[in-house]
Amino acid sequence: MIGHLIQKLFFALGGFARWIYCMFMNIVFDKNYEKNIGYYLFEEEVIDNSGMNSNKKNFVLGIFVFCLMIMALEYFE
User: Fold this and answer.
1) Can you tell me where the transmembrane regions are (predicted)?
2) pLDDT at 37
3) Residues near 17 by Cβ (< 8 Å), separated by ≥ 6?
4) CB within 8 A of 1, min separation 6: which ones?
5) In a designed cystine with 31, which of 24, 25, 50, 62 is the match (CB 3.0 to 4.6 A)?
């Protein structure tokens, strides 16, 4: 139960970070990434060329963002 909740937290953090990154790319470099946050949070599980689906990308990025947040809290303490 708690493990599933933590996993969903990492999925959400990763999806939010991917959305922020794509919005930055759209503004600065005039790319054509999806602007809807729901696309990154609730996207279908499509496997791309790297062999990772969206949930795996969100999970890995979510762990990375969580670690960065912990380090930032320690640094600014």
Assistant:
1) 9-29, 59-76
2) 86
3) 61, 62, 64, 65
4) none
5) 25
Low-confidence ranges of the chain (pLDDT < 50): none
Q: Are 63 and 9 spatial neighbours (Cβ–Cβ below 8 Å)?
A: no
- Distance, in Å, from the CA atom of 27 to the CA atom of 71, rounded to the nearest integer, reads 28
As a whole number, the mean pLDDT across the chain is 88
Task: Look at residues 32, 38, 31 and name the one whose alpha carbon lies nearest to residue 54.
Answer: 38
Q: What is the DSSP letter of 49?
A: T
> What is the separation of C-alpha 21 from the centre of its chain, rounded to a whole number of angstroms?
9
Nearest Cα to Cα of residue 54 among 41, 37, 65, 38: 41
